[in-house]
Amino acid sequence: MLSGLHARFTARFPRSEPRARALTYMAGLVAPLERKNGWTLAERAGEGHPIGMQRLLGEADWDADGVRDDVRDFVVETIGDRDGILIGDDTGFLKKGSRSAGVQRQYTGTAGGTENSQIGTFLAYASSKGRALIDRELYLPASWTDGRKRCRAVGIPDEVPFATKNEHFRWMLQRAIDAGVPFAWVTADETYGQVKHLRVWLEQRGVAYVLATRVNDTVITQGWREIRVDELVAQLPGQAWKRLSGGKGSHGERIYDWARILRPHWLTPQHHLHWSWWRRLSHTRARRSHYKRRGHTP
Fold this sequence. Notes:
- The chain has eleven helices and twelve strands.
- It is α+β, with helices and mostly antiparallel strands.
- The longest helix has 16 residues, at about 65-80.
């Protein structure tokens, strides 16, 4: 299967050497290596240094966006389903030095704090048949985009602007929509869900979603009154909470109490409903998560 996938995008590599190395690189990524970096991938390929692998990613001439599209199409053909889910998230890559594109001291969940790192924004696809990444963007802090000379030094074109992670998410979603990727709804954590204009953007396109947001976010009630989420949840009667399993996790069954209310929304199509959902640990009311859902009647 790996060779077949590689054959789909060989035309994206004008030269034979990076074309062949791409297959070696892919084989290393799926190999059971404890760590995967230029050194370990090179050693697995029988090479004594990582220069070739580094050249493939940093200097070789190939159409990275074209390969991205080919991989996305392969994923859709393999595990695509009309009930699929698009998942947005970002992750950090710890780095040393200041030359890697987009690197600076910034918060990353990978380290649980502020570290010298790069941040990548990703779009994943999941269905009952499997899951895979289908898109990516590199987050470039303003410290980079404000200094185009620094960007040029690492091969970032002048036309690449500063963009927030939420803008990245919208770009990737739009590419998936334009490509006809089959999916039922979109989800992401509160980094994305707390931004109201993202929710409006989705609703304007008729896209169903479940997005986490902050408990101090505000919502519109059935009486068209704006209220904070934590104030609204405090008014819920005890019978509004239903105990449900979130499936098995690494420490056993994940049991939560759930509550929801129906909310009005002027952008919601007639066949969609707009809900606010809350989740709390079954043994305490102290820790709550709030989700906003727009989609078909559950």
